[in-house]
Amino acid sequence: MSEVLRVLVVDDDDLMRAGLRAVLSSDDRIAVVGEAADGREAVTRARALLPDVVLMDVRMPQQDGIAATRELSAVVPEVRVLILTTFEDDDYVFGALNAGASGFLLKRTRPEQLIEAIHTVAAGESLLSPSVTRTVIDRMTTATPPDPETTRRLRVLTARERDVLTLVARGLSNAEIATELFVEESTVKTHMKRILPKLKLRDRVQAVILAYETGMVRPGENAR
């Protein structure tokens, strides 16, 4: 990842793209390297420009943001996708996350939060707006029980790694997990770097989903 974050802005609304460019340009650590008005153009431009982060709308002509995210995850997996939309419908949330998005924010997010989200996603973390996190957890309440093979995946984790994953799924940050487990924050980061490849997961969002799907964590258990 470059020192100045390279961002591709994708939205079919010209005014929205201009507004997002203006917001992001207020941070000298971010450079908007391009724009796209639909999913197909987004994939083409991302392959050519290799931005650190693609700020992706959902509903667009030609190809929607979810399909574009899925394609980007396959052809340029190093590019992080942050979904920014007016919709928080379950199907959009899960469609985006399953397609490979690293974050999901609503367009009513404040400018400073959007800028922070860009940096968070570019650093390899993932995030969801609070209302979207609630949607993910609520959806898990009615999720179909996992098959035995999915549950067996957790057996590769050590006891401490399971502790860390449980707290991640409950919504704690690395710093909060460190306090909870009486370890250094760097230790928590190390555990996460081991957990994700062991479980063949891309990021924390997928880890949270897996934890709920397998019953490791259940809705209402101090979820944030």
CATH architecture descriptor of the largest domain: 3-Layer(aba) Sandwich
Q: Order of strands across the biggest sheet? A: 2-1-3-4-5-6
Quick one: CATH class of the largest domain? Alpha Beta
The total tally of domains equals: 2
Strand fraction: 5-15%
* Class inferred from helices and paired strands: alpha/beta
CATH topology group of the largest domain: Rossmann fold
Radius of gyration: 17 Å
Low-confidence stretches: none
What overall form do the CA principal axes indicate?
globular
Total helices: the number is 11
User: Can you say what the CATH homologous superfamily of the largest domain is?
Assistant: Response regulator
Total strands = 6
Modified residues (4-aspartylphosphate): 57
Pfam families: GerE, Response_reg
GO biological process, one term: phosphorelay signal transduction system
Domain HTH luxR-type: 150-215
Using brief descriptors, characterize the structure shown:
transcription regulation; alpha/beta; DNA-binding NarL/FixJ family response regulator; 52% helix; globular; Rossmann fold; 224 residues; 11 helices; Arc Repressor Mutant, subunit A; single chain; DNA binding
Task: Map the helices and strands.
Layout: E1 5-10, H1 14-25, E2 30-36, H2 39-49, E3 53-56, H3 65-75, E4 80-85, H4 90-99, E5 103-106, H5 111-122, E6 127-128, H6 130-141, H7 148-152, H8 159-169, H9 174-181, H10 185-198, H11 204-213
Parallel strand pairs: 1-2, 1-3, 3-4, 4-5, 5-6
Structural notes for this entry:
The chain is of the alpha/beta class and 224 residues long. It has 2 domains: 5-138, Response regulator (Rossmann fold), CATH 3.40.50.2300; 144-213, Arc Repressor Mutant, subunit A, CATH 1.10.10. 52% of the residues lie in helices and 13% in strands. It has 11 helices and 6 strands. Helix 5 (111-122) links the parallel strand 5 and strand 6 (127-128). The protein is globular and about 50 Å long. The two termini are 30 Å apart.
